[in-house]
Each structure stands twice: as C-alpha cells, then as structure tokens.
Amino acid sequence: AQKITQTQPGMFVQEKEAVTLDCTYDTSDPSYGLFWYKQPSSGEMIFLIYQGSYDQQNATEGRYSLNFQKARKSANLVISASQLGDSAMYFCAMRDYMIYNQGGKLIFGQGTELSVKP
Amino acid sequence: DGGITQSPKYLFRKEGQNVTLSCEQNLNHDAMYWYRQDPGQGLRLIYYSQIVNDFQKGDIAEGYSVSREKKESFPLTVTSAQKNPTAFYLCASSMVLVRSVGQPQHFGDGTRLSIL
Fold first, then answer.
1. pLDDT digit string (tens) for chain B, length 116 residues
2. A99: which chain B residues are within 8 Å (Cβ-Cβ)?
3. A101: which residues sit within 8 A by CB, 6+ positions away?
4. How far is A86 from chain B (nearest CA, A)?
5. Residue of B nearest to A31 (CA)
C-alpha cells in the first residue's frame, strides 16, 4: 500500500541557516508524484514544490529544493536561508498512478513542525 | 483572484444536529476533495468528486455526506451519525489531466468544527 513517512515530529533551525525535512515513501507504481505543503498556524495548506518520478533533475522553487533519491525512496525538502515566516507544519504527500485512477487523492505524511529561531 | 473559499471558519455542532460546511472554487477545476485533519495528524480523505453529479467515498466517509450539483461547489454535511466530528476540515480542488499524477491540489483555509 502507498505510504508516506515523516520521522521528525519537530525541528528547530536558526534563522538564515538551511534545514532538511525528511520524507520517505512507499509505492510499487513506477509513475508517481511527490508534493510538499506548508501549513502555518492559521491552517491553510500552501503548495510548495513537486517532483515527478521520471524527472531527471531535483525540483527547485526559490528557497525550496527537493533532494530526490529514488533508489532510497526519499524526497527530502531543503529550505535554504530560513526565515521566521518559515515556522509552520510541513507535509509530504504522494500520488501514484493507481491512486490517480481511484480519484487522485493525495496520501499525506504526519507532518514535521519547523520552528525558526531568531 | 482565483481560489477556494470555505465557510464558516468556525462551526459549533450540538448533539444530534447536522451541520453543513461550504466549499466554493473559481479555479475551473473538475476534481474536488474533502479532508479531515485531527491535531498533530496528517490529512485523511472523506469524499471526492471528479465530475458534477458524481462523488465517491474516501477513507473515512462514515457519518458524512456530500453533493456536487455545480462544478464550483462541493458542500460537506457532518451528520449526527459522526460521533467524533471535532476536527479541522479542508476542501481542495485540482485539475484532472489524463495520465498525469502531477497536478497539485489547491486548498481552502479550512473550517474548525467543535462539539457544544
């Protein structure tokens, strides 16, 4: 069955430093997509970055990059130059082709709470 | 601006009462979803719809009902059969592209439901 695992319930990082949030996934489907979302305390889910299983390069979006290691089934989010506004819950999510055929839902991990210290 | 609007932001339910959460989108997305989030947890799918007048149960549909009479609207009713409704409810939408797993879901700001 498809599964997302985020093993870090909470993390601290000093402002202006880089931080890596871990995500491992499990699927037997060769076609899948991996997503990262940010959830501030206000509750909305903000889409950050996407990586496709067939993408040759790691995805980047501004200060966000995705360290995609396919053989290890990991898709870690790297935030460079952390800012106080980065303090939030971060969720890793996945959709594979089987899920796509069943309505396209996202499978979410438990999340990592990031706190940025001034 | 295009987006997803959920209302109300906060909702209180009395015992034996049904309540309805509103979700409206103007992104012209075909697919819409309802998720439930409990404290410190990830999101779990309640219902989804990929086309008007059709919807499917998700992983935790018991005690909930939905309708999809218009493309833009996907209201969720929490019925009295849902014995533990206190949670944060998020509505999402996405495009549906043939053979594409890469469409992100866009979310509303959520509704916090509590029992009185």
1. 679 999 999 999 888 899 999 999 999 999 999 999 998 788 999 999 999 999 999 999 999 999 999 999 999 999 988 889 999 999 999 987 666 777 889 999 999 999 88
2. 101
3. none
4. 18
5. B101
